[in-house]
């Protein structure tokens, strides 16, 4: 905050009316009752009552910063998106980090996935890549999302976090095992936001000038190096500096120690996806980097802190719906559901006109027929007509932006996931760990499961055993359970 003692700005109401006294309410005499005509008092109190918008259901506690994305690799053969059209081209960005399960006042050092959401302000509109610091997630079907998140929140009876709910759910959802293994590993508690990777997590698509499509996964590789907190360090910081990650990010940028990430993609052709032995659009799976190597695309650097947290971080709104020409979706079921749920959550949280807030507003020309709604603070389209087609030179569609068609096949129904392999990749991850990493993983899981009912422990151990026998046996031993 800049101190300016010579400022001569006059305090006003929100309507611009000068305020003569901001220390004393208007009363009937020195000791008399307040007067209803003191509109300055009622305006201050009424606005104060409404200063908190509903917090995000997930990703409530977060931090953000502005920066720039610079193209360093040529992918024009894969996409016609203009932000990639030449090496060295720069695009402004806003990036919001977050924890997932905790409330706004929760500690930054909780064992929890971290949100990694990037808004690219491109010349063709905003592109939002809304991901996490993990390449996979706990579910592959969005119908399970509300139930899963309920287990990460608070017990309806005690209003306390309750490990029994968490492990009860996971014990009945083996697809979560891959993400659970990541969460309880050494990477489960990143050392702030600068020392972790980011991932788009979902499969997306890129479309080139010939309308040819490839499937892609996005990776953001931290240039600061991976650093994680031990459980003991995290617990201490939770009590002494619960805003540790926010403080670290803000101070680093303020001191011009700008954090950076190398941006890469994995690419899979439609034919390769068809021939793959597992579903490449399954959010609980990763793609082999041996078979689908990382391709460098660019560099993302954060170099500017927000000037007002609420306006720029709390009101920042991201949605996977925001894709520019040359990009597309995929059959990932969870991604398809997020296309609806994210904009819907933002309309509930900060209003139907949330995309016109400065932090969310495109930095390129935009033209649409959306009108009215709460908190419409621009000219609301002025005198221009609010329908299309019209005879008054209003904005019109352009067929050249038509997306490449996607073939569909199969029968309509609720198809079970009985044929999915939920264990191999989780086991592969365990086997990749060194001895210290394995020991930390086992200790973290045993500590979390220790007070969970025996039948839930036993069911969950069967999943660990199927992933890797040593994995399951060591957890069973830690819990004192004979296998």
How would you describe this structure to a colleague?
The chain is α+β, with helices and mostly antiparallel strands and about 475 residues long. Among the domains are: about 60-140 and about 190-360, Catalase HpII,  Chain A, domain 1, CATH 2.40.180; about 425-480, no CATH class. The protein has helices at about 40-50, 145-150, 165-170, 175-185, 230-240, 245-255, 270-275, 310-315, 335-350, 425-430, 435-450, 455-465, 470-480, and strands at about 60-70, 90-100, 115-120, 125-130, 200, 205, 215-220, 260-270, 295-305, 325-330. Strands 1, 2, 3, 4, 5, 6, 7, 8, 9 and 10 form a ten-stranded antiparallel β-sheet that branches. The mean pLDDT is about 95.
Furnish the topology, listing elements before pairings.
Blueprint: H1 39-49, E1 62-71, E2 90-99, E3 114-122, E4 125-132, H2 145-152, H3 163-171, H4 177-183, E5 198-199, E6 204-207, E7 213-222, H5 231-240, H6 244-254, E8 260-269, H7 270-275, E9 295-304, H8 309-314, E10 327-328, H9 333-350, H10 424-432, H11 435-449, H12 454-467, H13 469-479
Antiparallel strand pairs: 1-2, 1-9, 2-3, 3-4, 5-7, 6-7, 6-10, 7-8, 8-9
Short description:
It is built from 13 helices and ten strands. It is α+β, with helices and mostly antiparallel strands. Among the domains are: 62-140 and 189-361, Catalase HpII,  Chain A, domain 1 (Beta Barrel), CATH 2.40.180; 424-479, no CATH class.
């Amino acid at each position: 905050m800049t101190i300016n003692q010579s400022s001569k700005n006059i305090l006003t109401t929100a309507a611009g009316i000068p305020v003569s006294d901001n220390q004393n309410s208007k009363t009937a005499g020195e000791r008399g009752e307040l007067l209803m005509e003191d509109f300055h008092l009622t305006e201050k109190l009424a606005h104060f009552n409404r200063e908190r918008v509903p917090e995000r259901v997930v990703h409530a506690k977060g931090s953000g910063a502005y920066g720039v994305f610079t193209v360093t690799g040529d992918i024009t053969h894969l996409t016609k998106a203009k932000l990639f059209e030449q090496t060295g081209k720069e695009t402004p960005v806003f990036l919001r980090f977050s924890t997932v399960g905790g409330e706004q006042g929760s500690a930054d050092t909780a064992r929890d996935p971290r949100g990694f959401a990037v808004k690219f302000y491109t010349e063709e509109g905003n592109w939002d890549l809304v991901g996490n610091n993990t390449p996979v997630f706990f579910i592959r079907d969005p119908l399970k999302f509300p139930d899963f998140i309920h287990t990460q929140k608070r017990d309806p009876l005690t209003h306390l976090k309750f490990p029994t709910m968490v492990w009860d759910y996971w014990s009945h959802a083996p697809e979560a095992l891959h993400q659970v293994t990541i969460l309880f590993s050494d990477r489960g508690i990143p050392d702030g936001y600068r020392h972790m990777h980011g991932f788009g997590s979902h499969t997306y698509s890129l479309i080139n000038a010939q309308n040819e499509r490839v499937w892609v996964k996005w990776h953001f590789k931290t240039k600061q190096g991976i650093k994680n907190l031990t459980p003991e360090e995290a617990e201490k910081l939770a009590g002494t500096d619960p805003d540790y990650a926010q403080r670290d990010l803000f101070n680093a940028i303020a001191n011009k120690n700008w954090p950076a990430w190398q941006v890469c993609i994995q690419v899979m052709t439609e034919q390769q996806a068809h021939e793959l032995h597992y579903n490449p659009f399954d959010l609980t799976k990763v793609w082999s980097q041996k078979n689908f190597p990382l391709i460098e695309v660019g560099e993302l650097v954060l170099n500017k802190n927000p000037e007002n947290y609420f306006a720029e971080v709390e009101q920042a709104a991201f949605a996977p719906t925001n894709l520019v020409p040359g990009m597309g979706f995929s059959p990932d079921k969870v991604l398809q559901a997020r296309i609806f749920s994210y904009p819907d959550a933002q309309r509930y949280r900060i209003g139907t006109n949330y995309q016109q807030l400065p932090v969310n507003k495109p930095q390129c020309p935009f033209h649409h027929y959306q009108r009215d709604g709460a908190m419409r603070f621009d000219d609301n389209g002025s005198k221009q007509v609010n329908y299309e087609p019209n005879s008054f030179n209003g904005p019109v569609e352009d067929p050249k932006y038509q997306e490449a068609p996607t073939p569909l096949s199969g029968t309509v129904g609720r198809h079970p996931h009985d044929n999915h392999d939920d264990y191999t990749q989780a086991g592969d991850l365990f086997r990749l760990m060194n001895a210290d990493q394995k020991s930390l993983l086992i200790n973290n899981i045993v500590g979390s499961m220790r007070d969970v009912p025996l039948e839930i422990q036993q069911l969950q151990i069967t999943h660990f055993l199927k992933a890797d026998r040593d994995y399951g046996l060591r957890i069973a031993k830690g819990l004192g359970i004979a296998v």
